Amino acid sequence: MNDNEFLRACDALIGAPHVLRGADQAHDMAPYLSDWRKRYTGRALAVLRPADAQQTAAIVKLCAEHDIAMVPQGGNTGLAGGATPDVSGRQVVISLRRLDRIRQVDAANHTLTAEAGCLLANVQQAAQNAGRLFPLSLAAEGSCTLGGNLSTNAGGTAVLRYGNARELCLGLEVVMPDGALWDGLRGLRKDNTGYDLRDLFIGAEGTLGLITAATVKLFPRPAARMTAMAAVRTPAAALALLNLAQEVAGPLLTGFELISDFCLQLVSHHFPAQRYPFAQPHAQAVLLELSDNESETHARQLFERLMETAFARGIVEDAVVAQNLQQSQALWHLRESIPLAQAEAGLNIKHDIAVPVSRVADFIDATDPIVQRIAPGARMVTFGHLGDGNLHYNVMAPEGVDAHTFLRQFQAPVTRAVFDSVHAHHGTISAEHGLGQLKRDEAAHYKSPVEVALMRRLKIAFDPNGVMNPGKVLPD
């Protein structure tokens, strides 16, 4: 079967309007061929857009039979190039965006089953409509999809209380690389009947199979939320505040974000409507939130006790407490605007790393001077989820230095130094963005040979012909 025959077979399976190919459809194909950061741009034989799991399985089977490599894609909001085809023009992109149905909400079982192409925001809304909470939340929730969240094991702002995507998922429906469809959509908290296949596909970035639907956990909606921005002197002081908050609030502590002063200044500079939250600058800030299922009164009492103790111990220098939902959203908007402010400021060297929570301050104190020795005057854009040890440890060019020139000269040595420091602090070079093609080789460098060999065996066992998202996660 030649290319034209293959494409006609695709037309027959999913309908010609959903098989994008050729020069006359280059404009329609373009959004599927570049990653969100425009770091990678590939070519594709076609972009295929099946409507449901059965069509997806049929398309995958056809590709497997003709040894055509497949690149699964959701909202295409990934940050590591994991959903971008290579430049050969011989791969197909399988877009899951049309698989966008909420199949079932079981409020009594606190579960929801949705297809992989559902926007995360729509999953959240479906849960809310049923009087429940789906707590996975991140800045791209209006454009990222549930399948992509699971494929990269997304984290977000509520991991501290609810866990990341893997911990929120109970069951999956997956198309295997040969086109077989596995229905593992079980809404069970306990199922001890053999190997846990579900967890193998979560975080695998579509290299072992293609997720078409998932059953996820729901939670009671909180009766009250309390949000504050607290100023502290150092990351170590932020860690002390985290420990105190966990002592006082226990599992009610939902979010705990570390934000350097430079991040806040950057947002205020590029988005003047978002005002700097304090009367004077402070080296570090913490955005923290409690979610209480009892009452607003109970939440406020806990929050007041926490902040009074923090001030009495000299941990906190200043604080802004949200008095209503609008003010709470404004504080979170400050945090979520940091990546947008970075984009306005120009290209920078980005790192999505994690170390044990207890070592976050040590990591920053040890790594900042190393970066300055390599790239004097570099500006550190450090923020992230202190509650789970995940930092976005980003490096901007010095004031007045061209960003492209800075990246060409310093990206490789700075990244190597940062990753070496992460490794020395027993951390990981990718916490929530995945490996894709961006960090594929680096991950293999820092993993043990045993771990890499085990991953290769899994890949071969599930995808012996190497047709499912090749070139991602594992080096060729």
From TrEMBL:
The FAD-binding PCMH-type domain, residue ranges: 40-221
Top-level taxon of origin: Bacteria
UniProt cofactor(s): FAD
Keyword field: FAD, Flavoprotein
Record-linked SUPFAM superfamilies: FAD-binding/transporter-associated domain-like, FAD-linked oxidases, C-terminal domain
GO biological process, one term: respiratory electron transport chain
MF (Gene Ontology): catalytic activity; FAD binding
Alphabetized InterPro entries for the sequence: FAD-bd_oxidored_4_C, FAD-bd_PCMH, FAD-bd_PCMH-like_sf, FAD-bd_PCMH_sub1, FAD-bd_PCMH_sub2, FAD-linked_Oxase-like_C, FAD-oxidored/transferase_4, Oxid_FAD_bind_N
Chain segments annotated as coiled-coil in the UniProt record: none
Family according to the record: Belongs to the FAD-binding oxidoreductase/transferase type 4 family.
Stored PANTHER family: BLL6224 PROTEIN, D-2-HYDROXYGLUTARATE DEHYDROGENASE, MITOCHONDRIAL
Name of the protein this chain belongs to: Hydroxyacid dehydrogenase
